[in-house]
Fold this protein.
Amino acid sequence: MLEIRNLHATVDGREILKGIDLVIHPGETHAIMGPNGSGKSTLANVIAGREGYEVTEGEVLFDGKNLLEMAPEVRACEGLFLAFQYPVEIPGVANLYFLKAAVNAVRKYRGEPSVDAMDFWDLVQERMELVKMDESMLKRSVNEGFSGGEKKRNEVFQMAVLQPRFAVMDETDSGLDIDALRVVADGVNALRGPERGFLVITHYQRLLDYIVPDHVHVLFNGRIVRSGGKELALELEEQGYALYNEEPGRARRAAA
Amino acid sequence: MSSVAPVVQNPFRQQFAAFAAGRREPDAIARLRREGLDRFASLGWPTRQQEAWRLADLGALAQIDLQRPADALVDAGVLPTLDLPVHRLTFVNGRFAPGLSRLRELPGQALIASLGQALLTHPERIEPHLERLPGLSQHPFAALNTAFWEDGAFVYLPRTTVAETPLHLIFHATGDDIAVYPRLLLVLEDGAQATVVVEYRGKGRYLNAPVAELQLGAGAVLHYHQVQEEASQAFHLGGVRVRQGRDSQANLHLVSFGGQLARTDLDTLLDGEGASCVLNGLILAHDRQMGDYHVRVEHAQPHGSSEQLFKSVLDGQARSVFDGMIHVRPHAQKTDARQSNRNLLLSKQARANANPRLEILADDVKCGHGSTTGFLNPDALFYLRARGIPAEQARTLLVHAFANDSLNRIQLTPLRERLASSLADCLALGNIEEQ
């Protein structure tokens, strides 16, 4: 469902992604691991369409459609979801209102009528349970004054309500204690299914104990340098990323 | 500019002779008018060399040969409504319009009337209060108002009288090259309570220079709302004076949508122990509009508290000014005074000027102020879009969120809802004209 071919991207004129190839089929969960600065978040942002990331080469297809030509909102309406590494605080916009606006935007895009208020409320109630979210968070402004864990939970909650076909989790585990991590992982696992794909981006292997991926890729210096099964994550846990740092050829290229 | 001043003053003096000759009113009032005219003459037409008028471009107004307005009729259909039972007084070009006014039953000795009528029936209630408040002493247009006001609203609530029904005061101006000077005198005796909505609006190219005087006795509670939706070519140069007695509470909400140049000077004197006020101002401006609040909060007695929240949303080449002074007198210990000014720019050509000022002469006080100006947060915009919300809707949502912080403080629900929808219209209009 997601095909990334020879993707090159720059930020402020600096090349961060240097030729990524990745194919994710429906029902698959892929993990991308890598050290800081390897390009993990850039990849997430390019997929979601954030401004300031320039694709200089390559393509990204979503169900065969050219994703890179779509505005961020169109990508979302097509069924793409980005769980933000740093969810944004939006004072003055209530969480519930925001969520309803998002649901209705997607429905409008699909030519469906606005969501029925009762149906929406039922869905919200059910999904709140999934991430063990307190009802009071619905009335609060989006992410305003939320703790780190609450913010990440809110991301998974939004995902659960919007029910995207493909989700990118950008370091959703960073800054979470083990309990919060479990809640977030449970939320993601509950949504896994044969029609849905996930790209889980993380710095740490720990998350992958809870969200067990089908494939693991190591991103280093803007390239996928290794791919394997879930056991690759364990190997990285033991050996760290130092192995890649010390590869002389790559190190030289990185310095160039 | 200063050489222009005497030339501009003359017409006012000539007009005044004709105006004053035609009026039948107590000598005390006639004297106040002459004093007002003299004060205007000594203050002169404002120039940009004066600090208080440095950012106001009155050039276009100075070009207009301002005349006294003709009598005019307006259709009741153009007047704003509140979807509530209200006492309604309507003034067209500063003159009372009884056909467009409706008073409901009033409690006890309360009096709500046109100022002109009340001067005939109850001069003893008016003379001790009219033009007695300090403040606006340097405001030339307030001085002109004192000289030229024809009519206005008089609200008098005796001790402990609670007016449950809100007062809806509509000041409508219509015509080109005219100046109108409506007046509001509101007297709340000890323990009285009132909710007032003042609407300034109109059609044409005119100057509206209103003055409102609000007096709160001990323990009085006032919810005052002032909605400025003047015609797009109009000038609004108004003043509000407030004096608060012991433990009184004044909640003032000022919303500014209209006019090419709209300025309100607000002078609040907390003149009794424990008096508190909330001053909540919002400016929405687009194209070449300018909105301006000059605020002075004077803490004269201990244990007072004041909170100023002034915001502006500026599109196109619009400008806003917030000049806010907190003055704490030496005796006013335990004062808690806060001031916040936040400006949202929707275009790169828009500009917000903030001039927060503190003069604190007491040593045991809490005072704080802050000012921010910025564009819409691109991260927030992206966040909304990444959830499927189209860019334009996301932008609107964020602007509303910013402005709702002010509007949500308005407890009068029908007014709040009407303003929220005016806000949407105003911004949509701005967007269309910008393209």
In short: Chain A touches chain B through 30 residues (CB under 8 Å). Residues 246-256 of chain A have pLDDT under 50 and may be disordered.
